[in-house]
Write a structure and sequence with these properties.
Elements: H1 9-14, E1 24-27, E2 39-42, H2 44-58, H3 61-81, H4 89-109
Parallel strand pairs: 1-2
Length: 141
């Protein structure tokens, strides 16, 4: 076990955590993790906790449906990848549509975070819900 007096990027770098790592780092959305030059993904269990909060705090049904979509995706992964098979395109298309519909439903009931006339340094506020930024146009497939 390693220890450093600083918890953030400084300590992580000094201990050599993720030094030279070129894969995908899956983590809990802790800001210093994003300072490393690899690709990133957020652990779905952390997404689920955020979605639970939206459901309990705000009573927004899309969040509960999104949780089901994430767990259904995990089920697909286990059902096919554990047998060395690819997930069929029809299943990927169906779950992608459900995922996108949950996002759209969330955008409808989630107000934009209040804007600030003077830009601040750092990342813009995300608001209370774990939705990604609103898309300006639908992505092409």
């Amino acid at each position: 076990m390693l220890c450093h007096r600083r918890r953030g990027t400084e300590g992580t770098t000094a201990l050599g955590v993720l030094a030279g790592y070129t894969g995908i780092a899956i983590h809990d959305h802790w800001s210093p993790s994003f300072t490393f030059g690899c690709d990133h993904g957020v652990c779905n269990e952390h997404h689920v906790r955020e979605l639970d909060g939206v459901t309990e705090r705000d009573g927004q049904a899309w969040a509960q449906r999104m949780k089901i979509v994430l767990y259904d995706g995990l089920d697909l992964k286990h059902r096919y990848h554990d047998k060395g098979q690819d997930i069929p395109d029809t299943d990927i298309t169906a779950i992608t549509k459900r995922y996108e519909q949950c996002l759209l439903d969330g955008y409808v009931v989630t107000p934009e975070p209040p804007g600030n006339p003077l830009p601040k340094r750092g990342r813009p506020k995300r608001g209370k819900n774990p939705l990604p930024s609103r898309p300006t146009a639908r992505p092409h497939r």
